[in-house]
Amino acid sequence: MFENFHVLCYYGIPRDKIGRLYKEAREIFVYENGVLASKLEPYEILVLRKAIVIKLVTCCPLLLVGGIDCEFVSVVNKLKGLNLGCDWLARYLSVRKTYNWRRILETMELLEKVGFKEKKLSNLLKAYPDLVGETSGNKAYIMFEKFHKVGLQMNEIDKLLIDNSEMLLEKSVKRILEALKFLKCIRIEKQFVVRFLQCHMKHICSSSLLVPRAVWNRLKIRRDELCQIIKEEPLRLFSIASKTNKGRIELDSLDSRNAEKTTFLLKLGYVENSDEMVRALKKFQGRGDELQERFDCFVKAGLDYNVVSQLVKRAPHILNRPKDIIEKKIIMLIDYLVYPIESVIESPTYLCYSMKRIHQRFTMYIWLRERDAVIPRLTLGTVVGISNTLIVPYFVNTHPEGPATWENIKKAST
């Protein structure tokens, strides 16, 4: 043990750092005579300077355990290829951090995959040297994995990094992971998460968030209500969930939001402060002005105001779609299927189906109708609502060319 202690001292390792080596890599102190010196030599050949080896083994004692660390060698060779080299690496090594060379190598390779090659990667590492630390490098790798899971493509990740290079700072990576965890917890759709990351990355990088439960408990709302608030006004996330604002949650703003919705519901005939009104406030999603715009879509299409009022009271969900989607579905109904607007009265669930499903079902039904293979005026609920399993035997197979036509329709809409 003392022989190896003297080997380290003679090599130039500061005496006050040897305690760390003993704590993290005790095995090196029981090496036989000459073994420890033989382990230092390859690293000196690799990095060319003894001073760099001293910094390396002081910060990463495990490099001296076992054979030469192949992943560390790969990292060094990559850095040399980027004209950074070992001097640059040694400058940013710290005894206060730990290093996982496999994960650092994976992070560098992932950055190359998303478009940071050679000069771009070199500049990125110069700007954010913490990427060679396990703490931030490991979290950055996890962040990229999560980006892939929510549906971000490589070119989209590349653009995010180019437009928001600060997202690779250690504190930014931590905040991005917090935001992703928050959005997953409140069960927001992946498509929304992708748009949120693309549009609000600078806000995300500068805001540390509370956990969702703390937010919905403070606001006295349910998980799904918090989800809807964020979907309607994404930037509200940073005011109602920010740790810096936790003493100032925007209750007044929420009250104002409900006041607008209450005004709209009063017009529909709900009684103020009634149990029915309380239930309606939860069922109708959106601001009061948004709900009014959606309501007006049906009136402009030709339905009587009172008829629409009764319809939305019976089926509140029809106003929970964006105005432009409601308008498109009305146009599809009237101009494409050539059904009267009154059809939605008996089949309001039609408005809940996706545009893709509606277009596929309408196209198939029109094709069959033109060939007298189906009843000419089926309800919307039957045309659009029939399950994917039953549509083939009950509709598609009523004409010999139906199956081939149905497959072509589905292929054309993908």
From TrEMBL:
UniProt KW Glycoprotein keyword: no
Superkingdom: Eukaryota
BP-aspect Gene Ontology terms: chloroplast organization; DNA-templated transcription termination
Gene Ontology molecular function, alphabetical: nucleic acid binding
Gene3D superfamilies for the chain: Transcription termination factor 3, mitochondrial
Keyword Translocase carried by entry: no
Family stated for the protein in its record: Belongs to the mTERF family.
PANTHER family named in the record: CGI-12 PROTEIN-RELATED, MITOCHONDRIAL TRANSCRIPTION TERMINATION FACTOR-RELATED _ MTERF-LIKE PROTEIN
Descriptive protein name: Mitochondrial transcription termination factor-related / mTERF-like protein
Organism of origin: Arabidopsis thaliana
